[in-house]
Design a protein that fits this description.
The chain has 380 residues and is α/β, with parallel strands linked by helices. Helix content is 30%, strand content 13%. The chain has helices at 27-36, 63-72, 133-136, 164-178, 191-196, 203-213, 230-237, 256-261, 267-270, 273-280, 290-293, 308-314, 347-355, 367-378, and strands spanning 47-50, 76-83, 89-91, 114-118, 121-125, 183-188, 223-227, 244-248, 285-288, 318-319, 361-364. Strand 7 (223-227), helix 7 and strand 8 form a beta-alpha-beta unit.
Length: 380
């Protein structure tokens, strides 16, 4: 979390303010909800979320990545959670650990390689639910996209795969050292898939138990809970009082729990005023794909902003869209510079375009760049 400073244009909606009242839709009520949301927390707006830590500079979801993001001043640091065979929560973006660990180099685990269908996608590799925590701890993390971030491969093998409990202890220790809480943005990954395995690997109950153990289960606790499955957020809401964010993919996509339940709604339906009011009944924010905020045209250039920021704010919701990265390959075509896809493009221009829409926060692999861009808007 960045050193506390005076709030800018407005304070972030979050921990202390919005419980069930977030769903009360009246003009004055909505405005006051957003204004009072950050009171007592000191989170600036727009806030910057270290995406899997500072994953532009260190292998994602390692203590090297988390610590660097914190030291850079990221306001919030993200964790994605998946379970082990024996029920421990790991910080991995996916349960498929083929690309983010050295598991393929361990002959003792060669027979664990398998093919599974997860949220409708067939994958072949090694999966966390087939390993005990003790076995996972024999592995080492590595860079997920070495073709784009060759410099990150320097750190391959330096860190273990962290558990959520270890992250909570780290955040507690760093918070005491700095005299202010370390904010976390905690995601349930594939919660329906894990629950349907029938192995007792439900994510929400484990997360709630861990948060309670560290006193992070309250409305004013320094963490957001997030998921691409609205049902997971609703389940978490019955277990803990932390502020919650529904993640939204591209417009034509459907949350996987909707697919499983036969719910025909797409993300396009969820960002209508009616859909946003429904989300506001159990969550405090949304985390849309950036293309939901500003679409790209047929040439992959930025188009015009949609109404989603205005409509979400009208429903009393904040927006934490994802993800801005500095490299050309991840940027809109009109913000790329030069011909090297892995060189930095005009990242500041992209940050400026998205922040100008009035979003309340933003995920980035490059917290230092993002914070410099956000500073321009926090002064207003």
């Amino acid at each position: 979390m960045q050193k506390r400073e005076q709030p800018g244009r407005r304070t972030v909606l979050g921990a202390a303010a919005l419980g069930a009242g977030a769903a009360v839709l009246g003009g004055a009520g909505q405005a006051s909800a957003r204004e009072r949301g950050g009171a007592g927390h000191g989170l600036p707006v727009p806030l910057i979320i270290g995406h899997r830590g500072a994953s532009g500079y260190r292998p994602e979801h390692t203590f090297g990545s988390y610590q660097l993001a914190l030291d850079m001043g990221a306001d919030v640091i993200e964790q994605d959670l998946v379970p082990t065979k024996d029920g421990h929560l790991l910080c991995r973006h996916e349960n498929d650990i083929t690309a983010t660990t050295d598991v393929s180099a361990h002959p003792e685990f060669a027979a664990r390689k398998t093919t599974k269908t997860i949220d409708g996608q067939q994958l072949t590799g090694w999966f966390t639910e087939d390993f005990t925590l003790a076995e996972i701890k024999t592995l080492r993390a590595k860079e997920r996209i070495p073709g784009n971030r060759q410099h990150n491969t320097l750190y391959d093998g330096r860190w273990e795969v962290p558990t959520f409990d270890e992250v909570l202890r780290w955040a507690d220790r760093e918070g005491r050292k700095r005299g202010r809480p370390v904010w976390l943005h905690i995601e349930t990954k594939h919660p329906t898939y894990f629950r349907k395995l029938g192995l007792g690997l439900g994510l929400e109950e484990r997360i709630a138990k861990a948060l309670r153990a560290y006193g992070r289960h309250r409305k004013n606790s320094p963490n957001f809970l997030q998921s691409f499955e609205p049902g997971s957020i609703q389940r978490l809401g019955r277990l803990v009082d932390c502020p919650k964010v529904v993640l939204l993919s591209t417009l034509t996509s459907r949350p996987w729990d909707f697919v499983e339940a036969g719910d025909p709604r797409t993300v396009a339906d969820l960002i209508t005023p009616q859909g946003l009011r429904w989300i506001a009944g159990f969550a405090e924010g949304i985390g849309p794909d950036l293309t939901v905020i500003i679409p790209r045209d047929k040439d992959n250039k930025l188009g015009k902003p949609t109404r989603v920021v205005k409509d979400a704010h009208a429903a009393g919701l904040v927006l934490h869209p994802y993800t801005v990265r500095n490299e050309n390959t991840f940027l809109p075509a009109d913000y790329r510079r030069g011909t090297d896809p892995n060189a930095y493009g005009d990242a500041f221009g992209v940050f400026r375009a998205y922040l100008a829409t009035g979003i309340d926060g933003l995920f980035s692999d490059n917290p230092d760049t993002a914070l410099l861009a956000a500073a321009e808007f926090r002064k207003r």
